[in-house]
TrEMBL record:
Domain RNA polymerase sigma factor 54 core-binding: 94-279
UniProt-listed InterPro entries: RNA_pol_sigma_54, RNA_pol_sigma_54_core-bd, RNA_pol_sigma_54_DNA-bd, RpoN_core-bd_sf
GO term, biological process aspect, one: DNA-templated transcription initiation
Gene3D superfamilies the record matches: Homeodomain-like, RNA polymerase sigma-54 factor, core-binding domain
Domain RNA polymerase sigma factor 54 DNA-binding as annotated: residue spans: 291-450
Keywords (A to Z) from UniProt: DNA-binding, DNA-directed RNA polymerase, Nucleotidyltransferase, Sigma factor, Transcription, Transcription regulation, Transferase
Lineage, opening ranks: Bacteria, Bacillati, Bacillota, Negativicutes, Selenomonadales
Family (UniProt): Belongs to the sigma-54 factor family.
Organism listed in the record: Pectinatus brassicae
Coiled-coil intervals, chain numbering: none
UniProt-recorded Gene Ontology molecular function terms: DNA binding; DNA-binding transcription activator activity; nucleotidyltransferase activity; sigma factor activity
Protein name: RNA polymerase sigma-54 factor
Length: 452
């Protein structure tokens, strides 16, 4: 029997081509594995797809020793095995959710319900000039020159488009975007209107005193107005995107049954294969045909076993992740625990690189959404007093708690945050604090300052 692993001089362990294929399959994404299966299916007449709703297919370890029947007829028919055969027979694509609707399609649908046939082509042209943020990036004068429509008609149609969802769509600048939303919510008046129309840049600099002086109002009134304005969406189109996003189908689903989390490797992400029942008798075949058949059957069995090994390894790794990260599944991202791939590898008695390959390009559906499995293994930061490892996400959680609990009139500076973290045995630099604060979406202490 041939060995899958070979020894060279100096006792150096090398992998045979078959072992290399198994490793490659382990780290493939579902999409890449589909392509590999399709290619092998088109080249190998001994492979068939298994109907997951049907009875169990013939065991591959028995089929390898079984004879093959009606080979000539089957080989003749197999010449027509194409990509289309793969798509039809692999698995039920109805289980894949439809892609999310993009911004342009959503606006065009609303236009169909709003405008007359004569107005429709004008509205469509304007909508096609709206970028992924939701802003009109072509002036009405340029649109007029392009489609030769009266400017008043263009203004009228644009104003109606600006009533579409999402609120603020079709604006030509930030002030107009905020104005549309403020009008809808009923606070486009007084100091709020003045800020939106004249002082947007000063909001970004938190120069509230300057606004109060210019408008001759109290800083409290300015602060209240700014708080309302900050609730508006400056980029209303970004929630939809400019293109249809590719829907991620999770490789693994974790479900809670009673008080236990169950790991399920999704059967629809990879089609199931088996050896064709037609290969049963080779008694009357010549040696050349037998050799060809055995080669194809062995290749098919190796592929099937590699796919099963991929599934089993992924299951084992994810089961360990669930055990190690139970707090996350109960409470969410803020409860992610420190976890390294070596911890999982040691528990399963496999190499760390095997864990890395098993989770590469794989996604898990959790009670808190679909996430990359790599998210469970975060970058580490060492705490100086205890030597324990704290993941960066946990440090961000502490920073977030400190900022949320600060006095808004005297917000915490990055150096103060750094000092407070040291009191909790988290020793990181002020620059790292600033980086984490910005990643959390918080401005500097000067720009967070509010006025009582």
């Amino acid at each position: 029997m041939k060995q899958d692993l070979s020894l060279q001089l100096g006792q150096k362990l090398i992998m045979t081509p078959k072992m290399q294929q198994a490793v490659k399959i382990l780290q493939m994404s579902s999409q890449e594995l589909h392509k590999t299966i399709e290619e092998e299916y088109n080249e190998n007449p001994t492979l068939e797809f298994t109907d997951i709703s049907a009875e169990e297919p013939v065991s591959t370890d028995k089929v390898a020793a079984d004879d093959i029947n009606n080979l000539a007829e089957f080989l003749n028919n197999s010449s027509n095995r194409t990509s289309s055969s793969f798509n039809k027979e692999s698995f039920d694509f109805k289980t894949i959710p439809a892609p999310t609707q993009n911004l342009a399609d959503m606006l065009h649908e609303q236009a169909l319900l709003t405008f007359t046939a004569n107005q429709q082509h004008i509205a469509d042209y304007i909508i096609d000039c709206i970028d992924e943020r939701g802003y009109l990036i072509m002036s009405l004068e340029d649109i007029q020159a392009a489609i030769h429509v009266d400017i008043n008609i263009l203004n009228n149609i644009l104003e109606r488009i600006q009533t579409f969802e999402p609120l603020g769509i079709g604006a030509r600048n930030l002030s107009e975007c905020l104005r549309i939303q403020a009008c809808y919510y009923g606070f486009y008046h007084g100091i709020s209107a003045a800020i939106i129309d004249k002082y947007i840049e000063l909001i970004g600099k938190n120069s509230l005193k300057k606004i109060a002086e210019k408008e001759n109002v109290s800083i409290i009134e300015v602060q209240d107005a700014v708080n309302k304005i900050k609730q508006l969406n400056p980029k209303p189109g970004c929630a939809y995107g400019n293109e249809i996003p590719q829907h991620i189908i999770p490789d693994v689903t974790v479900q809670k049954v009673d008080d236990t989390y169950i790991v399920l490797v999704n059967q629809y992400t990879v089609p199931s294969l088996h050896i064709s029942d037609l290969y049963r008798n080779t008694h009357n075949m010549d040696e050349q045909t037998k050799s060809y058949v055995e080669k194809r059957v062995n290749s098919a069995i190796w592929l099937i076993n590699s796919i099963e090994q991929r599934r089993q390894t992924l299951y084992n790794v994810c089961e360990q992740i669930v055990q190690q990260q139970k707090a996350f599944f109960d409470n969410g991202f803020d409860s992610l625990a420190p976890l390294t791939m070596s911890t999982i590898a040691d528990t399963l008695n496999i190499h760390e690189s095997t864990v890395s390959r098993a989770i590469a390009n794989k996604y898990m559906e959790t009670p808190h959404g679909i996430i990359s499995i790599r998210k469970f293994f975060s970058a580490n930061v060492t705490s100086t007093s205890t030597g324990e490892e704290l993941i960066s996400r946990q440090i961000k959680t502490v920073i977030k708690e400190l900022i949320l609990g600060e006095n808004p009139v005297k917000p915490l500076s990055d150096q103060k945050l750094c000092n407070l973290l040291k009191e909790r045995d988290i020793n990181i630099s002020r620059r790292t604090v600033m980086k984490y604060r910005e990643q959390l979406g918080y401005q500097s202490s000067a720009n967070r300052k509010q006025y009582s």
